[in-house]
Amino acid sequence: MTNHWVDIRNANLILSMGGNSAEAHPVGFRWVTEAIEHNKAKLICIDPRYTRTCAVADYKAFIRTGTDITFLGGLIHYLITTDQVQHEYVLNYTDASLIVHDDYGFEDGIFTGYNPDKHTYDDKSSWMYKLGDDGFALRDESLKDPRCVYQLMREHYSRYDIDTVSSICGMPREHIEHIWAEIGKMAVPHKTMTMLYALGWTQHSIGSQIIRTAAMVQLLLGNMGMPGGGVNALRGHSNIQGLTDLGLLSQLLPGYMTLANAAEQDYPAYIKKRAKQPILEGEVSYWKNYEKFHVSLMKSWFGNAATEENNWCFDWLPKLSRPLYDVLDTFDRMYKGEINGYFCQGFNPLASFPNRQKVTEGLSKLKYLVVMDPLNTETSEFWKNYGEYNDVDSSQIQTEVIRLPTTCFAEDDGSIVNSARWLQWHWAAAPGPGEARPDTRIMGDLFIRIRELYRQEGGVFPDPILNLDWDYNIPEAPSSEELAQEYNGRALVDLTDDNGNVTRKAGELLSSFSEMTADGRTASGCWIFSGAWTQDGNQMARRDNSDPYGTGNTLGWAWAWPANRRVLYNRASADTQGRPWGKEKAFVWWSSEQGRWIGADVPDFPLTSEPSKGVSPFIMQTTGGGNFFAGQSMVDGPFPEHYEPYESPIDNNPLHPNNPLARNNPAGRIFDKDRADLGSREEFPHAATTYRLTEHFHYWTKHARLNAVVQPEQFVEISHQLAEEVGVVAGDWVKVSSNRGFIKAVAVVTKRLQPLRIGDRDVHHVGIPIHWGFTGVAKKGYLANALTPVVGDANTQTPEYKSFIVKVEKA
Amino acid sequence: MTVNVTRRQFFKLGAAGVASSSMAMMGFAPESAEASVRQFKLTHAKETRNNCTYCSVGCGVLIYSHGDGSKNARQEVFHIEGDPDHPVSRGSLCPKGSGLLDFVRSEGRLEYPQVRAPGSSEWKRVSWDEALNKIARYIKDDRDANFVERDEKGGTVNHWTTTGFLAASGSSNEAGYITHKVVRNLGMVAFDNQARV
């Protein structure tokens, strides 16, 4: 979330799209109802299904799954043509006026630089701004230049007229007109819309670009950095934000730093590429400090072994020889027999990854599988026969499986990061059952054993193992307190200011990432978490819930990254003179008396940089502005474009009907086997989408009796019309098949799903809740991922669980 | 010596016009109140602050457990409810969070390290030492056999691609941090968490 849960109450309009927070985040959703009741806010809900979020919405509309860019692109077209734009904001706080490179272009669905043989854009050199002789980007503040971002954006979305949107999304014109008109009202400076989304936007082959389109709408309306505004990802797991922040992804390091690829052999060049300098004069471009954060990480990991002479152990970090080693790639290699060992720490890939059959075959080719989990997961028993629910022959599976019992949240100390970036500390209430151990102890103990083997036997490239900094009180069981202080960071020697005065003594904890240096004097395991545990103690454990400005901002409760800021980009909540855009939206503003930015939040800006200097609010960006034009930061184009899901119920992309290359995302993630496993709409005519129920959490709560009692049995949702076509009534069993597998479930026949008119035909949606499997106390069921395709978003590789095609038969 | 009366009789007597305080002075004392007013059942529980383990709203929860922390007295969680001080949840829990106790005490909880041998259809219980030594050995053998120091162009890559690791977004930052520190420095790159899906 750019904003936070309680801040939703400050919104004037709430757009719920690509999510169903009333059911998936029910307690967070109370701030939506708070906004409706006490801030006269309106709620718009757009979804393929009629959900409980829709049930309390003022305006609701059905949309065909996977067509959200079309709806939002049409909205951009509408806002620009009707001039419902926050002009001062767009001109001063975005890249709208920057001129784009002469060679950039877009033709029949394809951007410049595409290589059709490799299905990638391998030449992105034209995806950038045009630079002047001084190295800074050229701009036209009249926004009239046909090559400025604003005009290119206007032209790009001119194709998204209301009739096109209606026929692609399956949404009647009058619904679209009404919703767009309501959203247009938020262009005035003192009104804000907030956007709430979840996996309904991410789990598409165009997922990242859907979210970018949303951000573009919010920039046009001047809603970023505003209380009651923002683009708010409602994340799925209790600490999925923290694990992302800590960089536990194939190409990342902690704090959104990145590993080198194999071509990056030179350390200074590696840093230079990441330490981004401003491309407009005077802007902050905070990533220019990259090396301070990187060297501090290397000091946390390798201690005295990391020196300037060895480039702070740059060569000890693994480098990437292929673009990504994400899970789709890994399970494809596993399927091909190229992986020997696999670890699942609190993760159930047999249930969670697409094309369950492919996952089973991959796991069966491993030499060893290690599962660490509090629960008896399907993955840990993938080799065991559970009849129709897991029809395998154990004797033919040669994988050795080692299963380790772990504690759960109630049994360990530590912090988790909620969707609003709050790090909240919790304490153990009791030990785990039997011999269960915390993950910290398991990883510590395992490392000590591995290190001991390398000490005794030697081995290949032991340096990073033998030199890993491991100064914990009990080496086999590092404590949560020690680890939290390590990621916060500390001074390794006395730090001094320009006059030689000591500002931080050696050994003391840092109060902020602003204290870090690139010369090895500081250590920090995750720079964005710096400030979480300072000399003043554990900031994450704070419990002052007071709200002195009445904005819902409780700065004394827990601690938020970065620097305890609760609303990102909050400098943009004030106009160019530093004054709030409206009295009821006062949040962070310039105080000429104090000569600094003040207000209800920690200013996301250089504290004493006065407005007349004209520094722009988006300090992490090289332009200082919110960017409509993504430059080279996305792999599939600088402007979002609609492409059909890889499995679509229609034959072509209506925007590019004659270009098969532009039917689906031209840079989407798909392997040869998985392309062959896609079905045809003749055989599988219905759109399908997976989702979650309010009574269940993924595949965990089928192990909890209360939840199993209230939702005991697997079902699918179909419309009355589809039920009639198939010849079933409510309560009958149906078989739902894709080209990859099938499930059987009880049919819930409902008005919550309606056929949508797409072009000249009606498209049915089949709703597939995911929560059942073959372990737990609920009734056994089929893993829903028997059906889903192995197709990933071009940027994040997140599988397309929300849009695929199936057929439905009476079972 | 006191005269035994029930609480009901005592209040009846009081209602009949005699001040009950003076009745007590006269020796009429009611029996202990325990029979009619139930003790608050959480009185002697240990209260622990925590957060819900499901979605990312991060609702505050209060966990109540028995056991006084003595070395050989096992603590046990027996009640979980919303934390009324929490600025987001203000004491609420949703249908998922309301079942947290049944998750903590689920019969599906694992209690001992186990190994399933190749081709077997059964688990076998093992000790932590046996399990961790087996894993350490697997890691070292596979890493030593397949670690790549230089690629075909002669560039330093120092990675190990034949073993992969999925980390848990239900675990704490501290578990995530140490997991990253260990896994990455073994040279592993096939490393992800639920954020990928």
TrEMBL record, chain A:
UniProt protein name: Formate dehydrogenase-O major subunit
InterPro entries on file: Asp_de-COase-like_dom_sf, Formate-DH-alph_fdnG, MoPterin_dinucl-bd_dom, Mopterin_OxRdtase
Primary localization class, coarse: periplasm
GO biological process, one term: anaerobic respiration
UniProt keyword annotation of Metal-binding present: yes
Protein's cellular compartments: Periplasm
Keyword set includes Iron: yes
Keywords noted in UniProt: 4Fe-4S, Iron, Iron-sulfur, Metal-binding, Oxidoreductase, Periplasm, Selenocysteine, Signal
Family: Belongs to the prokaryotic molybdopterin-containing oxidoreductase family.
Pfam families, per database record: Molybdopterin, Molydop_binding
One function term, GO molecular function aspect: formate dehydrogenase (cytochrome-c-553) activity
Needed co-factor(s): [4Fe-4S] cluster
Listed GO CC annotations: periplasmic space
Xref: SUPFAM superfamilies: ADC-like, Formate dehydrogenase/DMSO reductase, domains 1-3
Gene expressing this chain: fdoG
Domain Molybdopterin dinucleotide-binding: 689-804
Gene3D superfamilies: 2.40.40.20, 3.40.50.740, Dimethylsulfoxide Reductase, domain 2 (3.40.228.10)
Residue ranges of domain Molybdopterin oxidoreductase in the record: 2-379
EC number(s) per entry: 1.17.1.9
UniProtKB/TrEMBL annotation, chain B:
Annotated signal sequence range: 1-24
Cofactors, names only: [4Fe-4S] cluster; Mo-bis(molybdopterin guanine dinucleotide)
Top EC class of this enzyme: oxidoreductase
Boundaries of every 4Fe-4S Mo/W bis-MGD-type domain copy: 45-108
A Pfam family hit: Molybdop_Fe4S4
Any single biological process term in GO: anaerobic respiration
GO terms for cellular component: cell envelope
SMART domains in the record: Molybdop_Fe4S4
Principal subcellular localization: other
Listed InterPro entries: Mopterin_OxRdtase_4Fe-4S_dom (IPR006963), MopterinOxRdtase_cofactor_BS (IPR027467), TAT_signal (IPR006311)
SUPFAM superfamilies on file: Formate dehydrogenase/DMSO reductase, domains 1-3
Record-stated family: Belongs to the prokaryotic molybdopterin-containing oxidoreductase family.
Protein name: Formate dehydrogenase, nitrate-inducible, major subunit
Name of the coding gene: fdnG
